[in-house]
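Go through this:
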Amino acid sequence: MDEVAQSVRAALESGDLAAFQGLLDPDVTWGAPDARTPACRNRDQVLAWYRRGRDAGVRGEVSDVAVIGSRLVVTMTVRASDEARRRGGAALRYQVLTVRDGRIVDIVGFDDRSDAVAHADRRNADAGGAGPGSTGR
């Protein structure tokens, strides 16, 4: 998981969509927490979302990638998005990435770190994996 975490960090920091593509499962989903129908339901849709943001000037700076069982909690500062503009130029965002067989199979976004960590812990517990206290880099 540490290698995947490092690869995710490098791909997101550089904005290298080809590198990020290699980390995504073909059937990766991305949406709001507990969404029945995620906004993105495959790798092409996820990459298109990132591409649209990048083309609009949105940039993210990764400050941390924590490993929680089979999930990564990515902390980033996002600039030039609508939310960042509303918050004075930068918005702190958190993504929980579920990893299976070395590939990202699900991405969920959060505004609050404690909500992101709780989601990761809950999903790990539901899957019979590591629970609270398993965070690390």
